[in-house]
């Protein structure tokens, strides 16, 4: 793309930390991320502000699952949305593929309210693809595998004008790559960064990019990836907007195809058929502790002035732990939408009520116990339920395979997660996050076995009424 085709007003993100490492909040930090507003004007508009820690919601084909832009306007606050480039490469019509009006205008989002994160691949996707060559990316589009050069990706970033974007990484597609393959992935990710940074067209907005730190499940290799990144930044005097850590490669025992929504969330239950709540919680705590150690192996040594993004956390317990133990600022979340797809209504409060012990954070509304439950969708004060949407109503919609059920659940779940994060930010400001997190752990079980039951309910209805629809986990 020629220089004159670029937006005249190119600005980069700014991150300010207001409170960090307070006595009652661990490593958690409260900040403000100022994001550039896409514009073709010669005068840059005022940036939009995003309070952190906060969530970014994963989209499908640039839309939040089950929701239209009109639905998105009903959420508690304007969401930040992640768009995967590989979802947009299915069209043979050039204007539809290239989106000359940018992502915001093409999909009905407000440029001054909705931040958009662009990624080459869908974060968290574990589609088995061929190894990425040195000069292009391998993307899984709706119409098959497609090769995409780094220069093409740079053109996409410039033309589509996202608020921020992920620098591409070379992700091993199998579950347990060898040390040699992991080292190769680290080197190739570094090479992608250097090639993109050398492009004159992209350099003005390199400050909006998030670099992905890899290394699989080895602390030493993760430290190597971080050292290589810092060395490259120092030697070439480059600057990026932030750093990102994908969590899916760090999870022990996950199915790489991720066909089941419950694989990553209740992996401990799958391995222990005769489980108990206590044993599940111990196993979950152990795995989250390992996750924290691996994330910190990547983050240690990086500048605290850079915002930290974690990709694909699983549920409020894990998010709380990662905020406190790693000081992360942004969380790319697809868990709440996946729960809505499975017929689960999130039902938790933060701060947690004092009279609860080991309660579930979600309700499986496929369960017949809700067939006559004419009570609000959730008792959580975090949602925006007006009381008119009852559990029995959504239960009926789910069993008749009505999409309205998933629309209502998506609105509810995303609003609950947004309010949850708002209350987390308040707890950081007041220095009470550690005590509130401990109360939350006592009140709500870390075992998400309700997801397995919801998946069984979904499958049963699908077999009766699905009529050719794809299974939920694919």
Automatic annotation (TrEMBL):
Which residue ranges does the record assign to the tRNA-guanine(15) transglycosylase-like domain? 266-445
Q: Which domain of life is it from?
A: Eukaryota
Q: Which GO terms describe its biological process?
A: tRNA modification
Provide the coiled-coil residue spans.
none
PANTHER family linked to this entry: QUEUINE TRNA-RIBOSYLTRANSFERASE ACCESSORY SUBUNIT 2
- In its UniProt entry, what is this protein called? tRNA-guanine(15) transglycosylase-like domain-containing protein
Which organism is this entry from?
Mixia osmundae (strain CBS 9802 / IAM 14324 / JCM 22182 / KY 12970)
């Amino acid at each position: 793309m020629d220089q004159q085709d670029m937006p005249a007003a190119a600005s980069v993100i700014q991150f300010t930390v207001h409170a960090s490492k307070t006595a009652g909040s661990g490593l958690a930090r409260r900040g403000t991320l100022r994001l550039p507003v896409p514009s073709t004007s010669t005068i840059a508009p005022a940036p939009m502000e995003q309070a952190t820690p906060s969530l970014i919601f994963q989209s499908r084909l640039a839309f939040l699952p089950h929701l239209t832009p009109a639905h998105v306007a009903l959420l508690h606050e304007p969401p930040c949305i992640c768009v995967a480039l590989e979802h947009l490469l299915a069209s043979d019509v050039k204007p539809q593929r290239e989106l000359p009006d940018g992502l915001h205008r093409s999909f009905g989002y407000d440029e001054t309210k909705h931040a958009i994160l662009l990624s080459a691949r869908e974060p968290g996707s574990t589609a088995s693809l061929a190894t990425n060559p040195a000069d292009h990316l391998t993307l899984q589009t709706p119409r098959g595998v497609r090769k995409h050069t780094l220069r093409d990706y740079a053109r996409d970033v410039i033309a589509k004008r996202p608020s921020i974007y992920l620098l591409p990484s070379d992700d091993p597609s199998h579950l347990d790559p060898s040390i040699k393959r992991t080292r190769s992935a680290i080197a190739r990710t570094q090479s992608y960064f250097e090639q993109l940074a050398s492009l004159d067209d992209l350099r003005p907005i390199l400050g909006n990019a998030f670099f992905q730190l890899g290394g699989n499940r080895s602390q030493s290799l993760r430290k190597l990836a971080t050292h290589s990144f810092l060395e490259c930044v120092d030697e070439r005097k480059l600057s990026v907007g932030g750093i990102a850590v994908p969590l899916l490669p760090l999870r022990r025992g996950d199915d790489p195809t991720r066909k089941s929504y419950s694989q990553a969330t209740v992996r401990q239950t799958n391995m222990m058929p005769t489980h108990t709540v206590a044993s599940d919680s111990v196993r979950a705590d152990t795995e989250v502790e390992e996750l924290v150690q691996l994330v910190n192996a990547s983050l240690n040594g990086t500048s605290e002035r850079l915002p930290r993004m974690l990709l694909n956390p699983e549920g409020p317990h894990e998010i709380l732990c990662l905020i406190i133990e790693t000081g992360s600022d942004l969380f790319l979340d697809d868990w709440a939408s996946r729960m809505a797809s499975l017929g689960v209504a999130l039902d938790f409060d933060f701060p947690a009520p004092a009279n609860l012990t080991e309660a579930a954070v979600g309700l499986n509304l496929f369960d017949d116990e809700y067939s006559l439950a004419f009570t609000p969708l959730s008792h959580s004060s975090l949602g925006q339920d007006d009381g008119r949407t009852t559990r029995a109503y959504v239960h009926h919609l789910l069993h008749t395979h009505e999409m309205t059920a998933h629309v209502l659940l998506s609105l509810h779940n995303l609003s609950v997660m947004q309010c949850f994060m708002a209350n987390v930010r308040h707890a950081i400001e007041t220095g009470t996050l550690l005590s509130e997190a401990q109360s939350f752990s006592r009140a709500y079980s870390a075992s998400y076995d309700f997801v397995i039951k919801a998946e069984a309910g979904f499958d049963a209805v699908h077999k009766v009424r699905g009529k050719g629809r794809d299974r939920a986990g694919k």
